[in-house]
């Protein structure tokens, strides 16, 4: 059965390796927002190989057959967003990508000149309007089911007081020993092929620090 983790992994493995282009959008070195979503859906088995690479308008046309509408509040990991009105979203008028969580997305975008993970805030998601969809027949794996090469939302961060915490995608856990930190980083590197994101905040009012603390309030 098709997995949303394969969709996300298609994007993650190309971060920093491809550029954004609406003219040269068929890969392997450059894509635009909609072509990247199409290639990821084909890779994951949601669309058959040989499917024509469409745009945001043809993605809208998959509603009912592949895409099941959900509210913005319900959006979760693996869901697809399409910004711009139906019938008027083509070209620079629309945008699309994949949710990593309700407030994080991964997408090929002009602002980053390639694939990047960003907040849904600050205009990154595009619109209005923004429509959210769940992939029919998708399997959604929990962090404990994640296999090598698949990405979960994890990071190490230092609070302004100097305490080090590990965010596992759900909660934050205090890291009290350097060996624990090393093991976590080694496991992440082996599973994902890159270093775990690490943040050092000195300002408790820093926007990203406040968002992370709000997402994972149950510090242990």
Write the layout of secondary structure elements.
Layout: H1 4-12, E1 19-20, E2 30-31, H2 33-44, H3 56-60, E3 67-70, E4 80-83, E5 95-101, E6 104-109, E7 114-119, E8 130-135, E9 155-158, E10 164-167, E11 172-174, H4 178-192, E12 198-200, H5 207-215
Description of the structure:
By secondary structure, the protein is α+β, with helices and mostly antiparallel strands. It folds into two domains: about 5-135, endopeptidase domain like (from Nostoc punctiforme) (endopeptidase fold (from Nostoc punctiforme), Alpha-Beta Complex), CATH 3.90.1720; about 150-215, no CATH class. The chain is built from five helices and twelve strands. It has helices spanning about 5-10, 35-45, 55-60, 180-190, 205-215; strands spanning about 20, 30, 65-70, 80-85, 95-100, 105-110, 115-120, 130-135, 155-160, 165, 170-175, 200. The strands form three sheets. Strands 3-8-4-5-6-7 form a six-stranded antiparallel β-sheet. α1 (about 5-10) crosses α2. Mean pLDDT is about 85; it is low at about 140-150.
